[in-house]
Amino acid sequence: MTPSLLDVEHLTMRFGGLFAVNDLSFTAGNGEITAVIGPNGAGKTTLFNCITGFYKPQEGRIALNHPDGRMALERLDDHAIARRAGVARTFQNIRLFPRMSVLENLIVAQHTRLMRASMFSLAGLLGLRRYRRAEAAAVERARHWLDRTALTRFADDEAGSLPYGHQRRLEIARAMCTEPRLLCLDEPAAGLNPRESAELNRLLLDIRADEGIGLLLIEHDMSVVMGISDRVVVLDYGKKIAEGTPAEVRGDPAVIRAYLGEPDEAETG
After folding, report:
1. Which of 50, 60, 61, 263 is most buried by a 10 A CB count?
2. Within this chain, do residues 202 and 72 fall inside the same structural domain, yes or no?
């Protein structure tokens, strides 16, 4: 059985009287790709916002099993979730630094590590060896992920000038430069054509295989979900209505109803 990486237990998040996430529990395995799917308004992005610290849930627990111990993410600030727990995220709407170069976007992602190495600027200003080593390592890590995402030839271009599909890959490369244990991807295939979606599938499968981390994915493109996921969690109106392998979820009557709606009586009569 795959070891648990993320345990979500009875998570509840309300806005006024509306339940965005309602008593949600599921587990994401280490070294697995777990997809969260559901119709618009099902609570998927709210779930991601709770996991990454943008929201603090009213009820429930979110635990990450880390080499340093089991971390309660709902008790950590968002910067600590990224830095200490090793949770990285991409967004449905791309959030690059468009006027920086592609390479600079990946180095900026390593800002916290560089600041620690510089003793919060002192070592950097003095050009001490520890900072020079950290800076060289950051550039090497950035170039590694440029190569992995086939973006090396664009290293000096402004990030905002890249084609849309390249920007999607750059966001993933930037997240991976933080060396996460859990990578949360919010609709990474949004706006991609079929060829780009197939390339995304290969990239995410390679990351799972080579890095040994967990990937948690929100996605509407079912060719991506069914093609690469180990487990699928289905939400509807904030509640979990199904969970299982892609094959199990694909034929679940509750999932079909959530996506297609109940048939009219006239149609069934």
Report:
1. 50
2. yes
